[in-house]
């Protein structure tokens, strides 16, 4: 199991209040990071600086990049051919246990649909700021919202990215609540992703028992950064929920922590990046850390924008959804294989994530028994 260290952020006297003033000033613009870029910023503002956790040589030497490569799995025949399905199950299980990440090809989502969703996300983020401001919100119950950094006031550092997000299932939003530039493609893409997500969960487990699913589409926009060596597009974190299906833009930049080193997840045309999230690692679908929810991050670039579309399959805080308990499957526990985590409700887990933000720690640690 890869261990990650807690990021310790030391503030000088008075700097915390200064930082809060900067955060509030940035938030009040409702223009996000792109607003800074549009204003012609040439230096990364102090709230975005990550120099205390970034090693300069990670950006300066191509020869030092890891030789490891994330598994790529062909899903052809997963629902039509029993023999191929068995092979796919084995590959997905191995990747989930040893990496927590893999890429899938021949997954059934047309290339034209993938191109259209990336274009829709880009068009939204490049709308006039005055238009986007009407969607800017930190209220997670909004059916559609635009914001920069969900943990702006909780995280130790601010990330160089803006986000649009929408809860698409099990209760689809009112179409009129979504912007014209991305409305139709968000509904179309979400249907494809939900079908693929259910297939992947079936492959990951013989019994789901997790209905209803909560699908959140998140369109990330990473503007070009004038000083990419001083900040991150997305600091080290694990994902909430069960699995994440990510459509990564051509600029790449995604890295995962494997064997105590950061490994690039390269852009692969037509592929989706799949990663195990926190609740699947500790949920009743599996036994005690068999599948890994691993830390990953996104590097900032001095070119862009970088566009990504992340779809999170999860239960969440939502009306009409039972607050069920999640924990190791009791039938598979024994003296030799005792439970690692206590049972938790989704509310407990989500509240912990929102309280701490992306602070570099593993979100499941507070729920460990020993």
From TrEMBL:
Keywords assigned: Iron, Metal-binding, Oxidoreductase, Vitamin C
The protein, known as: Fe2OG dioxygenase domain-containing protein
Pfam families reported for this sequence: 2OG-FeII_Oxy (PF03171), DIOX_N (PF14226)
InterPro entries (UniProt xref): DIOX_N (IPR026992), IPNS-like_FE2OG_OXY (IPR044861), IPNS-like_sf (IPR027443), Oxoglu/Fe-dep_dioxygenase_dom (IPR005123)
Entry annotated with the keyword Oxidoreductase: yes
Organism of provenance: Cinchona calisaya
An individual GO BP term: response to molecule of fungal origin
Recorded family membership: Belongs to the iron/ascorbate-dependent oxidoreductase family.
Cleaved signal peptide residues: none
GO molecular function: 2-oxoglutarate-dependent dioxygenase activity; L-ascorbic acid binding; metal ion binding
Keyword Oxidoreductase: yes
Fe2OG dioxygenase domain ranges (all copies): 211-317
């Amino acid at each position: 199991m890869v261990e990650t260290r807690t990021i310790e952020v030391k503030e000088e006297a008075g700097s915390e209040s200064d930082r809060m003033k900067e955060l509030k000033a940035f938030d009040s613009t409702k223009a996000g990071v792109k607003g800074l870029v549009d204003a012609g910023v040439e230096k990364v503002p102090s709230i975005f600086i990550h120099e205390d956790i970034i090693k300069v040589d990670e950006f300066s030497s191509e020869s030092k990049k890891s030789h490891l490569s994330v598994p790529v799995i062909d899903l052809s025949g997963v629902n039509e051919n029993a023999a191929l399905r068995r092979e796919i199950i084995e590959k997905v299980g191995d990747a989930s246990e040893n990496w927590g990440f893999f890429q899938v090809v021949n997954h059934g989502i047309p290339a034209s649909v993938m191109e259209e969703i990336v274009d829709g996300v880009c068009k939204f983020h490049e709308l006039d700021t005055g238009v986007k401001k009407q969607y800017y919100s930190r209220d997670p119950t909004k059916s559609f919202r635009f914001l920069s950094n969900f943990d702006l006031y909780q995280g130790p550092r601010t990330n160089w990215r803006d986000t649009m997000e929408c809860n698409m299932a099990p209760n689809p939003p009112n179409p009129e609540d979504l912007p014209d530039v991305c409305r139709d493609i968000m509904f179309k893409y979400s249907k494809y992703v939900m079908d693929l997500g259910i297939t992947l969960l079936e492959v990951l487990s013989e019994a789901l028992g997790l209905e209803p699913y909560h699908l959140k589409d998140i369109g990330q926009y990473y503007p070009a950064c004038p000083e990419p060596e001083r900040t991150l597009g997305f600091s080290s974190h694990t994902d909430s929920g069960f699995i994440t299906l990510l459509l990564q833009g051509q600029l790449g930049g995604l890295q995962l922590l494997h064997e105590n080193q950061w490994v690039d997840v390269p852009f692969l045309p037509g592929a989706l990046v799949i990663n195990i999230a926190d609740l699947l690692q500790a949920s009743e679908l599996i036994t005690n850390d068999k599948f890994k929810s691993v830390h990953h991050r996104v590097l900032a670039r001095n070119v862009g924008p970088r566009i990504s579309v992340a779809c999170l399959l999860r239960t969440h805080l939502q009306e009409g959804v039972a607050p069920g308990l999640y924990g190791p499957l009791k039938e598979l526990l024994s003296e030799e294989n005792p439970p690692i985590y206590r049972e938790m409700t989704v509310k407990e887990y989500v509240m912990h994530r929102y309280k701490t933000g992306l602070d570099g720690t593993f979100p499941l640690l507070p729920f460990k028994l020993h």
